[in-house]
Amino acid sequence: MRAPRLASACALCLALAACGGDDAATDADTSTATTTGGEASTSTASASTSTSTASDAATETAGETEAGSSTGYAPPSAEDYCACMLEACHDLYHATWGENHVLSEMACLASAAESPSAGMPATEGDFIECRAHYCALAAETADMGVCDSALGEGACQ
After folding, report:
1. What's the CA gap between 7 and 66, in Å, rounded?
2. pLDDT in tens, 6-17
3. Residue 9 in contact with residue 47, Cβ under 8 Å?
4. What's the distance, Cα to Cα, between the start and end of the chain in Å?
5. Contact between residue 151 and residue 131 where contact means Cβ atoms under 8 Å apart
6. What's 52's DSSP letter?
7. Burial (CB count <10 Å: 0-12, 13-18, 19+), residue 151
8. What is the pTM of this model?
9. Do 109 and 82 contact (CB within 8 A), yes or no?
């Protein structure tokens, strides 16, 4: 009978630990007392969590680019570019990087990481900004004709 109560206490601790707010630290102590054959025993579980928000990270890096300047511009991330390509230029994505999801994602991320940054928005030239621009355009307009540029061809050579 002690095991179910201890499991309940642990479940309560985990639930309390999982319930955190923005920038909040939460400490939860839970005690349970059981009596087994006339003997009393007490167990105490303690959980502590600390959470932070994405705005904390954004505040720390606001205005920094890869070069460390404070222009307020940050190039598109490889993850965002590849997610856009998968959605907006799906067929070309798989034709270029393969059908296996994990391998194609790794190949896309590698390709995006190799693409240089213009340091500002771009609509031509071999830059990640140019590729991301045409991918976003394909997503907005459903024009698959711009997917070649989003892949680094056409306007983004």
Report:
1. 48
2. 333 334 333 333
3. no
4. 70
5. yes
6. -
7. buried
8. 0.57
9. yes
